[in-house]
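In this section we walk through a basic example: taking a raw amino acid sequence and producing a predicted 3D structure, encoded as discrete structure tokens. The instruction is simple. Fold the sequence below.
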Amino acid sequence: MSVATEMFGTMVFSDEVMKKRLPEETYLKLKRTMRGGHKLDPQVAGVVAEAMKEWAVEKGATHYTHWFQPMTGITAEKHEAFLRTNKEGGAILEFSGKELIQGESDASSFPSGGLRATFEARGYTAWDPNSYAFIKDGVLCIPTAFCSYGGEALDKKTPLLRSMEALNRQALRILRLFGHADVQTTCVNCGPEQEYFLIDAEILNQRRDLMYTGRTLFGAKPPKGQELEDHYYGVIKPRVAAFMKEVNEELWKLGITAKTEHNEVAPAQHELAPIYNVVNIAADHNQLTMEIMKKVAQKHGMVCLLHEKPFAGVNGSGKHNNWSLSTDTGVNLLEPGDTPAENAQFLLFLCAVIQAVDDYQEMLRISVASAGNDNRLGGNEAPPAIMSVFLGEELTDVLKAIDSDSPVNPKEKTLLRVGVHTLPRFPRDTTDRNRTSPFAFTGNKFEFRSPGAPMSVSGCNIVLNTAVAESLRQYADRLEAAQDFESELHQLIREVIQAHKRIIFNGNGYGAEWISEAENRGLSCLPTTADCIPRYVTPENVRLFETHKVFSEAEMRARSSIMAENYCKVLHIEAVTMLEMADRDILPAVSKFCGELQKRTERRGSRYERETLKELDQLLDEGYDARCNLARSLEMVNGGVDEAAAFLYRDSVLPAMRWLRAVADTMETKMPGSEWPFPTYGDMLFSVK
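The resulting token sequence is shown next.
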């Protein structure tokens, strides 16, 4: 047995552990609850809690916590000791079924978007039995949903679970029409690929921008970046390899299937990818993955940066959300088979996704909107802020043939020949991949490439699940009422293709010409988060989520408010950090060096000293003008955190920040390295040897 298999899941109260530790009747009742068929019996919860406590204590745990995912984008936990006292004053260990099922947290202290007033503090955490409990840092962690006293969702998990139920309901209706009476449930699967940067820890304390914002707000381009593309898939440095090894081990203990690791395109950038899992568990696991990467990096003298764009001029970091839908009988509903043109069930589910992306393209864009991701989307490293679907040549030809009601000429797979006789020949896929597409079909799943690295995958999957559920609802309503199922099915597929083919684009999503073409097609373009905020609570979006009981209108308005507040606060912190760095470090350093140059010119007056002094003097004046302009822009916003303030930040504060940075970065190129107050881009990107 390998080390990986020996340690895998050792810190998880898994199905295998439950089978061993729970009475058979209790185990079966719990499994029925997990499958969604029955409510949890309080007596069952009591037995499970006792077994869970005994297992956790044996593993060294002293506390438990309801582990949840509030609207902060990270996880939250409040530790409670198992320790109690008995009548004699002695110590005992207790953990009840009630404590397992329900906890209480201060709902007013987390982002609520107005759902909770400061004096309305009560909130509840509720156990999600489908996501296994685990032990982290000596604490039993119980994955939970988080809601307000009035029942409104205050977290990412609750609406994700609702969206999974909505999609399951509609998918089962379709599958019944195709004769699949044996299917009891469908399952949304997700595999989030996680990109990140590693830099030496000593640098962090020398860069206020990295400390406060997670990205560099100043920094001139180094002589070498990613131009040679030598870092991508390159040999992993020993220090990074040691980090990756420990990350894998910690993840495997928690039952997280870390599978792939490699260097990414930018210097100091890397990627980790897991095996697919049920989407709510995948979301939990991804949150843990980000937390563990940060902790392990510190142990190795490094810092793990998860910002979407920590360094200008090189690629930023995304989180590619691989999405598929399967049945409990093991069928992937997005598997085309050998003859996709003849696979009507596949074509209908494919059409459901295409229609969902087209009908709710704005909501998908909104689901990945943030101040950080605005720096990444649309560059030659990430998809544009315009939604489109890549299907590849084979499937596109199939849909075109159906659209025109003409015969389909399937492409045969050919052997890949590379001109070396000793190399094996293998079948070449009928379709290439397209990494410039925000939403690409990759064989038997869709890859949504737009989410930013630090984002929870819950957000985009909530939208995707609900939008696909709506497509399937429309199809089921129509097909259930049809007199001739086969004829109606063919007509339905053809009509969907005709109505939504505008969203299909197999070309270069990075090209400037795509923006004008997308506009001609009538596709939505929301370049910034500020543009997204007003489009969140449109009548059609509210109707979608209320129809499927995923969000109420109040919950949607709350999330829109939280998005605006977060956008404003992030940019405020960045702007104030820039001012502090300019006032305390950059301008004084340049001024001091100019003073030294002035003295030298008075003594010798070399051409270098005269010309450099002249340039820096001009830059110093411009830099001071730029910092004053930024300060005035912040005063205009006056601490606002609403939709109007978001547009002020976009139109006034961000341009002022860009001006100050441009001047400061030019100053850096004119200053001696020993006189510049911060580590440079070269120092940071190549700091891990």
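Looking at the output, two observations stand out. The longest strand covers residues 186-200. The chain has a mean pLDDT of 90. In the next section we compare this with other chains.
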